[in-house]
Amino acid sequence: MLLPNHDNTYIIIPAYNENKEVLDQTIDELLKTSCRIIVIDDASSEKINLPDTKNIFLLKHPVNLGQGAALQTGIEFAILKKANYIVTFDADGQHTVGDISAMLLPLQKAEADITLASRFLKPGMHNASGLKRVILRFGRLVNYFFTGIYLSDAHNGLRAMTAETAKKIQLKENRMAHATEILYLIKKYKLKYKEVPATVTYTNYSKSKGQSVFNSIRIFFDLVLHKLFE
Amino acid sequence: MNGIKILLITGVAFIAVYFFIRLRNSLFDLLLLLALIATAIIFILFPDITNQLAAKLGVGRGADLVFYTSIIIFWFVILKLYARIRKLEQIVTTVVRKEALDKEKDTNK
Fold this sequence. Notes:
Radius of gyration of chain A: 16 Å
Helix content of chain A: 40-55%
Distance between the termini of chain A: 42 Å
Structural class of chain A: alpha/beta
Number of helices of chain A: 8
Oligomer: heterodimer
Order of helices and strands of chain B: HHHH
Distance between the termini of chain B: 78 Å
Largest sheet of chain A: 7 strands, mixed
Number of strands of chain A: 7
Strand content of chain B: under 5%
Shape of chain A: globular
């Protein structure tokens, strides 16, 4: 399904205290593609061991900074490696590897500078609970309020971008507010974006790693501060 | 001069000395501090001034007026501190990121 020549596509996985089995499974799935994989260990308490192949790079933050910071480190590393396409992917196994080619297609056809995955574009692509759906709806409104971009999904970790775009995406939000900051940058640089339907499978594990209501409030404050100071 | 006035002025004086030592390098902050301290001492010595000001602004008592303005100033200070923290965070991030990138360059292919 994936085009054969993908060794210029880099997949960025921020990891912080991930369950070993889940992370290994995610990596194994990704290794079936020809994409390169960058794992950023955001100072997890246990050492992360990855298969020793030339397609995997492991970067380690000496102190914990947050998912936004880890993504930015990965993006900068991918640019150093002269990546053509950069994909961001969550470590908790909620994304489907098969969706990556669909994410890349609009970039390859030059229809978009960045693609954002959405679990709500087509019915039946997610198993989010009622509460989660309410939070996501609120997240979409918050995104719209701060950036003027109204998406069908919010805080979806699967994205793909061209190298040109990646150079413009300079995340300053170290924690979870980066998801909105990306939209903010899309607006600022007038990037062409496209939403692509993609499956999200929540497991008990990914739910435990996910965002709580309390965290959403923190994100909101980070965004207000971002508006004030940046 | 009664007891509370001496107490307050001593307090303000200590704070003033402390900040004068710390802010030696930034003229603007020093001037701002000087203005604040002058106002504080004047208000402590002649509390009636605050009453007159409060009456003009439609606030009940002088003490209330001081209280309300303090709240606004505190908000301002908190925001300034937040800005400073964010800046520090960005500096830390730059260093950590550089370390992560450099290490990977050393160890791998």
